[in-house]
Amino acid sequence: MRNVNKVFLIGNVTRDPEAKKMANGETICTFGLATNREWVTTDGRQDRSTEFHEIVCFGGLAHVCELRVRRGELLNIEGYVKTRSWDDSDGLKRFRTEVVVEELIVLTKRPKEENYNRQDSSGQTQESQEMNPMNVESAQAESSIF
Questions:
Q1: Taken in order 127, 24, 101, 142, is the CA torsion positive or negative?
Q2: What is the sign, positive or negative, of the torsion defined by CA atoms of 125, 105, 19, 143?
Q3: 70-84: per-residue pLDDT in tens?
Q4: In sequence order, what are the residues at sequence separation of 6 or more whose Cβ sits closer than 8 angstroms to the Cβ of residue 71?
C-alpha cells in the first residue's frame, strides 16, 4: 500500500519569516502559522481550537517568503510533515515537527500603493518591483514553487 505525507493548511502567519543561509549555501526561511478548527459539540455548543505550526521553506521559495510574507497574512500552504531530532547542550534528545512547504499562495490582498520594501537576510533593501508576487520568475525557476 502507498504511503502519503501531504499537508494542506490555510492560516495566519504568527511571526515574520526569518531567513538564514545554511552551511551548504542554501537559504532556509522559517515562520509560524496558526490554523483554527470549529465544530458543534453534542450538546449544540459551538467550540473552537487553534493549532500552531512551524513552517519551513528552502531555496528560491525561502527567498520569496522572506521578502513577501509578513505576520498576520493569510496563506494557503501545501507541503509535507518532517520531524528533526538533535542533542541539546545538556545531552537531551530534542524533536521538532515542521511543515516543509512545496507550494504557497498568499491569500491576503494588499493595496497597490503599499510599500513592499524590506531587507533580506544579507541586509540589502529589496525594491517594490522585486517584492511584487507577479515578479517571482527567478524564484519559480529555482524552486518551481509559489
A1: positive
A2: negative
A3: 999 999 999 999 999
A4: 13, 14, 15, 16
Distance CA 143, CA 139 (A): 6
| Dist. CA 83–CA 103, nearest whole Å | 19
Q: Does the pTM exceed 0.90?
A: no
| Residue spans of alpha helices (H) in 1-127 | 59-68
Note down the domain range covering 21: 7-139
Minimal CA–CA distance to 144: which of 79, 61, 28, 39?
61
Q: CA torsion, points 60, 62, 63, 69, in degrees to nearest 10?
A: 130
Residue 20's CATH number:
2.40.50.140
